[in-house]
Amino acid sequence: MGVISDCGLRDESLFTRLGDDIEIFDDSGLIAVGSLIGTYRSLPKPIEVFKKLAGRETPTHTELAKVVMLGATNTTVPFLKKAQNDDHASVNVQLGQEFIFDMVQTISSNKDLWSSSVLFITWDESGGFYDHVPPPKACHPEPSPSEDTPRFDRLGFRVPLYVISPFVRRHYVSHYITDHSSILRFIETFTDLPAFTKRDANAWAMLDFFDFSNPSNDPPELEDLKEHKAELAEPTPEGRAECNDHPSGFDDEP
CATH number of the domain at 4-245, please? Predict the structure, then answer.
């Protein structure tokens, strides 16, 4: 969402505005271990903590912040038995799908939590895979960027977006142009926050997905992943070498 710089949190961000109403959980073992000494919600916490708080048999889901960010593992940490599951090229995509399944099942298994939740599932970039649709133009974020500053006046390549909630319209496919700042705009809309820049001020808040007057409190029926665990297999060394030698989006043959 453009609220974190290389040096940490900016002076004005979603985290400073929401305070204890926003929380991050990450599946990366190293980040999780490092955050155990922290006391601020803006520091990532282990994904296992989220699963415990949102667990079916405990009422502690009320301890969760209003806005929760869930992140996959972007690196393999052997000594913590953490395998990369963020769907980057050459990584076993089944592990990423397993992570998403786990998060959806965690939320939907708690009826009280499910009945008040909206879950956005998306990716931060396209991975370099080919897209025949040119990225459309967009308003630049700041009021008046200098000549030496990139205008950022164009969206990126398309990425998938799933919206899971008892409030979503069944089998609905949105045809509005949205981008990652649309999630920020949705949060701003429902927490009564002003926009940060022109970009999120003009972003569509994705309200067409929802029918808040007619929720369906029945959680989605998910197959038991344990039945398919044996099918989760690591890519072969030959397959990994092929991916590494042929980066996605490029073809070195004439």
Answer: 3.40.720
